[in-house]
Specification:
By secondary structure, the chain is mainly alpha-helical. The chain starts with 5 loop residues before the first helix and ends with a helix. The model has no long low-confidence stretch (mean pLDDT about 80).
Length: about 240
């Protein structure tokens, strides 16, 4: 015996919200790829800690994609087992996202330290590793920054101990800064504070998408529970 009346409406609502949820999974996958690409293109660091967030977003997106597909099938076929499994998995995902948000808030102050450590480590290999050199040059040119915290950080790097800096530290039309860096011809702000500002700006996009998806997840859980109750009532009548 199928779900009738108002519960049939709930079935279609579950199917509809699962379709939206499925699209949210695709959005998370796209967001994870976008953040990872931006980190690679803009920050150019290899720390696992720094790239962990977009990987988590990408993994959650893939899981959400498959869970939503599972929920759509369960709602369409009015399968109690599938709908129950969907509700449980969706609740677990919701709880994991809350835990991740709390962890992100707790450890947010450690991110600048991780970036600072990684940039300083890369600077030490500037003269011997062409990949690190290209990455740091691109980073400084893109963010108009120099060193980790300021241009004097380069004075401790092999190859620059005579108080010189790379050419990408020079302000526009100030090519003489490499041998005689001063506040007038050299970017004074380091790359760590510049990257921190960039992250704070773009984290709002990530937070907005995450809140929107969490809202649909909560609706999905509520409607799935209603559908479970209706399907079970139908079975009991039979």
């Amino acid at each position: 015996m199928g779900v009738e009346g108002g519960l049939k409406c709930v079935r279609f609502l579950v199917f509809f919200f699962n379709f939206i949820f499925w699209l949210c999974g695709i959005a998370l996958i796209a967001l994870g790829i976008w953040v990872q690409m931006k980190l690679n293109d803009s920050i150019q660091i290899t720390s696992v800690s720094a790239s962990g967030a977009p990987i988590v977003i990408l993994v959650v997106g893939v899981i959400v994609f498959f869970i939503a597909f599972f929920g759509c099938c369960g709602a369409w076929k009015e399968n109690y087992c599938m709908v129950t499994t969907f509700a449980i998995l969706l609740t677990l995902i919701f709880l994991v996202e809350i835990a991740a948000a709390i962890a992100g808030y707790i450890f947010k102050d450690q991110i600048p330290g991780v970036i600072n450590e990684q940039i300083r480590e890369d600077m030490q290999g500037y003269s011997t590793n062409s990949t690190l050199k290209n990455n740091l040059d691109e980073l400084q040119a893109k963010f108009s920054c120099c060193g980790a915290l300021n241009y004097s950080d380069w004075f401790k790097v092999p190859g620059f101990t005579n108080n010189t800096v790379p050419s990408t530290c020079c302000k526009p039309n100030k090519t003489d800064c490499t041998m005689n860096p001063t506040p007038d011809n050299t970017f004074q702000e380091g790359c760590v504070p510049k990257i921190e500002k960039w992250l704070k700006k773009h984290v709002l996009i990530v937070a907005g998408v995450a809140l929107g998806i969490a809202f649909f997840e909560l609706l999905g859980i509520i409607f799935a529970c209603c559908l479970m109750k209706g399907i079970r009532s139908g079975y009991e009548v039979m």
